Amino acid sequence: MIPREILKKIRQVEIRTNRLVSETLAGQYHSVFKGQGMNFDEVREYQPGDEVRSIDWNVTARMNHPFIKKFVEERELTVLLVVDVSGSGRFGSVAQSKRELATEIASVLAFSAIRNNDKVGLILFTDHIEKFIPPRKGRRHVLRVIREVLFHEPTHQGTDLNHALEFLLRVTAHKAITVVISDFIGSPVRNNTPAGRPKSSTMLLESLAQASQSMLRHANRKHDLVAVQISDPRELELPDLGRLVLKDAETGDVVEVNTGDPRRRAAFAERQTKALAETARLLRSVGIDCIQLRTDQAYAAELGRFFEKREKRRGRT
Question: What is the CATH number of the domain that holds 183?
Fold first, then answer.
């Protein structure tokens, strides 16, 4: 029996995200993501302007006038959500934590998928594979996905994107739309940052460094990879609060930081901004789209822009 408070939270997520899907994103999702190929639909008489290469010569010969083959796109897709549930995802300096925002993004994509009769699967990862839910259809299945993203208690706290991608390639034989939702903060060798508080920018690309460019490129060739990077404002700018003792959520390391120094705060903000830009650049270099979201900003417009860009790109291919 699922506790009442958990059911209430899942229902709240469903209501918020379903409204966005219904009003805005479901149609964009359908037009942006391609099916697995073209299926034969029917033969019909040739009409001026039809592609000559589509003529069915066997039927044309029998009927003594031209007929063409008509094909339709095979629409059924598989959407795999690969969600980072490591310790740094618990951090939230505003009303919403990174884990909660990740849940809403996963919910939006999952409900968009089932509205188009697509399957949805889930991989939760830290520096281990925490849970795998094979792709299926239906609202009940999506509600289970939402529950796991929001409430799963990980057995490990670190981050290893490389391991998650290797698992993805092993368990998914057919091409899938694969959305990696993460803060892309890896487990440092020597670094101290807050327990559920901001890490230094030197670690922002750590899990991308672990996931070599060749692995990212290989995974994107087999699947259609999209990266969603989630950050919190306190990971981008330090508050002026004097000396703070901070604990790393993934390693347990502790450090004292003087946030009262304006030069340090400015240098930190500049490093973090550059690190975000470098993350997007690295992903683009291997052909992966990157959506960068913040817990203190609405995400609907950013998702809409992503769909619009992909639709324009698809129209040019």
Answer: 3.40.50.410
Predicted confidence (pLDDT) per residue in 23-54, tens digit = 777 677 767 775 555 545 567 788 888 888 88
The angle subtended at Cα 116 by Cα 110 and Cα 117, nearest 5°, is 90
79-103: per-residue pLDDT in tens?
Answer: 999 999 999 899 888 989 999 999 9
CA 153, distance to chain mean position in Å, is: 20
What sign does the dihedral 193-199-200-204 (CA atoms) show? positive
Q: Are residues 70 and 107 in the same domain?
A: no
Which structural domain range is residue 139 located in? 4-30+76-316
**To which residue do tokens 């057919």 refer?**
174
Single residue among 22, 45, 74 that ends a domain in this structure: 74
DSSP state of 296: T
Quote the pLDDT of residue 48: 85
Question: Per the structure block, which two tokens stand in for 5?
Answer: 């408070």
pLDDT of residue 296: 94
In angstroms, the Cα distances linking 126 to 47, 84, 160, 197 are: 57, 6, 6, 17
**pLDDT tens for residues 165-215?**
999 999 988 889 999 999 987 654 333 444 444 444 445 555 666 667 888
What's the domain count of the chain?
A: 2
Please tell me whether residues 203 and 296 are part of one structural domain.
yes
- CA distances from residue 264 to 22, 198, 201 in whole angstroms, order as listed: 45, 14, 13
> Taking the mean position of all CA atoms in its chain, how far away is CA 55?
41
Q: Model-level pTM?
A: 0.80
DSSP bridge pairs for 289: 226
Three-state secondary-structure class, residue 248 = coil
